[in-house]
Design goal:
Blueprint: H1 11-20, H2 24-36, E1 40-43, E2 46-48, E3 55-57, E4 60-66, E5 74-83, E6 92-98, E7 105-112, E8 134-140, E9 151-162, E10 165-169, H3 171-194, E11 203-214, E12 219-223, E13 235-236, E14 239-250, E15 257-268, H4 269-283, H5 291-297
Parallel strand pairs: 5-11, 6-12, 11-15
Antiparallel strand pairs: 1-4, 2-3, 4-5, 6-9, 7-8, 7-11, 9-10, 12-13, 14-15
Length: about 300
């Protein structure tokens, strides 16, 4: 840290910090944006990092649930959102390549009330503590929200210019997106228990995404071909999915399972609206997340109905 000047800080200095350097005002604007888009949001809470076991603070956790009376399982989107107030002279630049076939995937979590639905297991389980309450569903191909050959981020850095020339760093943004991943892991653990809540009538699917939001005009991409050649000139964008492939243990220690966050979404404020719109459009598809297969797992297409129906 550079040596501080001895002059006392004044009102103008604090205002300059708030307007040009603090993320808090930007967080509030993103919080209000998500609320208007129909999400229930938590702002500024703490959690224990699953990996480091240290106390950390999240920016925003946002949940949207479709509780249509005719639809089962109910469907939910959970976003672990971190906000970064980047300056226009130090934007984020993401290097992208065409997405490979085996990267066009993401996991969906299915949680149930085991008194109403039993998830498929290799053998009959009668001890309540060992009865699974949740499972993951790996979504790929035409069912996935991430398509093969579409641009996907693989490296990123903030880029600016100082007196010596071009300069870059990835440290500040790296801190934000790793926080988003850690926060999303906690959301996955919580989602394992959600299907047992009465309002979900016994079954709930949840899509969990870590998201980093930056101001409009502060996100760029540079797209490369698979052979490493530059495909086009750098361009400003409003959204860029980023490959992370982060796998962790989800649920309790007796019935838990591995869960993978395949992508993180870098978005501007305009891109956040687009992302939410695209996710909700996916939910309206007849083949959303291979819905028929999920219903077969729950016995909803075999004539087997839970007793409470």
């Amino acid at each position: 840290m550079a040596k501080l000047r001895t002059d006392p800080i004044a009102v103008a200095d604090v205002r300059e910090f708030v307007e040009d350097h603090s993320d808090f005002e930007f967080e509030l604007s993103v919080y209000n944006q998500l609320t208007k888009l129909g999400f229930a949001c938590d702002h500024g809470g703490t959690y224990t990092d699953p990996l480091t076991e240290k106390i950390r603070q999240f920016d925003i956790r946002a949940t949207w649930t479709d509780q249509s009376q005719w639809l089962l399982p109910h469907e939910q989107i959970r976003l672990a959102v971190e906000c970064k107030q980047l300056r226009d002279n130090f934007p984020l630049v993401i290097h992208t390549v065409p997405r490979k076939f085996d990267e066009g995937i993401h996991d969906v979590l299915l949680s149930v009330n085991p008194d109403q639905f039993r998830l498929l297991t290799k053998e009959e389980i009668t001890v309540p503590a060992y009865v699974p309450r949740a499972m993951k569903w790996k979504v790929a191909g035409r069912f996935s929200i991430y398509n093969e050959e579409q641009p996907v981020g693989k490296s990123c850095a903030q880029v600016g210019r100082n007196q010596s020339g071009i300069t870059s760093t990835d440290s500040e943004v790296f801190s934000k997106w790793t926080q988003a991943i850690s926060s999303a892991q906690v959301l996955a653990d919580q989602a394992c228990e959600e299907g047992a809540r009465q309002e979900y009538r016994g079954a709930l699917t949840t899509l969990i995404l870590p998201v980093v939001v930056v101001p409009n005009g502060r996100l760029w991409t540079v797209h490369f071909n698979a052979d490493g050649s530059l495909d086009a000139e750098p361009q400003q964008v409003i959204r860029c999915p980023y490959w992370i492939n982060s796998t962790f243990e989800c649920g309790d220690r007796l019935t838990g399972f591995s869960y993978t966050l395949s992508h993180l979404e870098f978005v501007t404020t305009d891109g956040l609206t687009e992302l939410v719109g695209d996710l909700m459009a996916e939910m309206n598809r007849e083949d959303y997340f291979a819905r028929g297969s999920l219903k077969r797992i729950l016995g909803l297409e075999t004539g087997v109905s839970p007793a409470y129906w």
